[in-house]
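EI: anyone free to look at a 94-residue chain?
SC: sure, send it
EI:
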Amino acid sequence: MVKKTKRREWTAEDVRELKQLAKAKTPAAKIARKLKRTEGATRQKALTLDVSLNSRTVKSKTTVKSRTPLKKTGLQKTTSNRMALKKTTSKKKR
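SC: here you go
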């Protein structure tokens, strides 16, 4: 048999803590763990309260270090060359 979970109401203390943690730019997953709720429930409550949980992605240090610089491609040069050619050809037609 599947265990049915009972929904817990949001108390004033839960809402207060959600707002404080959101103001401190705490990631949504951490807020959810602290409130002992799912991340989805936490995000939904924040949405109904007009509390922003955006831009709280945590970047791991290994991800930042492993990034390699992007190589410049010839596409940038050809695009600028085309723009220059268009300007010179449009002047000649006049």
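EI: The two ends are 83 Å apart (CA to CA).
SC: 👍
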